Amino acid sequence: MDYCHRHNLVEPDTAGRACSYGIRVTLPANDTMRKVIGDDWERTHWYATEAERDAAFEHMAERHGYYRKSDTPTQVLEKISR
To answer: Is pLDDT above 90 for 52?
Structure first.
């Protein structure tokens, strides 16, 4: 498969690896964004090793610099395995 956009979440070098460690991203029940994207929205990111997953989890949990001081991100991150 060809990958033509850098913003795709699939990394061509790792696309064929078996991935057993994941991060499930959801929104809290009272988040108003649910009205836009639906109550059942979730995104799962998979990683081949627990160390890769844990590093990604720490990065995703950081308060990124593009938030305004008054903004508070409400995503819920959950480590999962299969």
So the answer is: yes
> Quick check: 45 and 23 in contact, CB under 8 A?
yes
Whether 14 has a pLDDT exceeding 70, the answer reads no
Give the span between the Cα atoms of 21 and 16, in whole angstroms.
15
pLDDT above 60 (res 65) = yes
Is 38 among the domain residues?
Answer: yes
| 48 neighbors 18 (Cβ within 8 angstroms) | yes
Give the bridge partners for 21, in sequence order.
47, 81
What is the residue type of 79?
A: K
Number of structural domains the chain divides into: 1
Residues spanned by the domain of 50 = 19-63+71-81
pLDDT at 56: 95
**CA 34 – CA 46 distance, rounded (Å):** 23
